[in-house]
Amino acid sequence: RSLARGGSWPTCPEGNAGRLGFEPYFACPTGTTPMQRTGGDTDALVPAPNGDLCADTSKPRRDCHSGDDGSCETTYPTTPRQARTEPNYVDISTANGAQRFYFSLRGY
Q1: DSSP letter string over 44-90?
Q2: How far is CA 1 from the centre of its chain?
Q3: How far apart, in whole angstroms, are the C-alpha atoms of residue 103 and residue 88?
């Protein structure tokens, strides 16, 4: 109930539980980098751990625009990242190492 009213996530140091984490997307495929668009005039891609795109930075392309400035920018092939239905997580340490448990707080 406290969480639903904006309270903080309860901690449990005795249970070796870590802090609440948020990972909105699954990992990008091997060889690609998580990125997001800047949203500015250039709409450039920047590395972002929770970015919504996966970019293959090994395949740069040069895109030049016609017009007054004739500017060029480097772009990369991108694919959308798969969103998690359970984006929240907590890490719990056990004798066998840490284990991550995912869940959703949507609707709370």
Answers
A1: -EEE-TT-SEEE-TTS-EEEE--SSS--EEEE--EEEPPBPSS-EEE
A2: 28
A3: 5
Torsional sign, CA 69, 70, 76, 78: positive
- What whole-number distance in Å separates Cα of residue 79 and Cα of residue 65? 22
Backbone angles phi, psi at 85, to 5 degrees: -80, -20
Check if the beta carbon of residue 58 is closer than 8 Å to that of residue 28: no
What radius of gyration do the chain's Cα atoms show?
A: 20
Tens digits of per-residue pLDDT, 72-84? 888 899 999 999 9
Burial of 81 (0-12, 13-18, 19+ CB in 10 A): buried
Could you tell me the pTM of the whole model?
A: 0.72
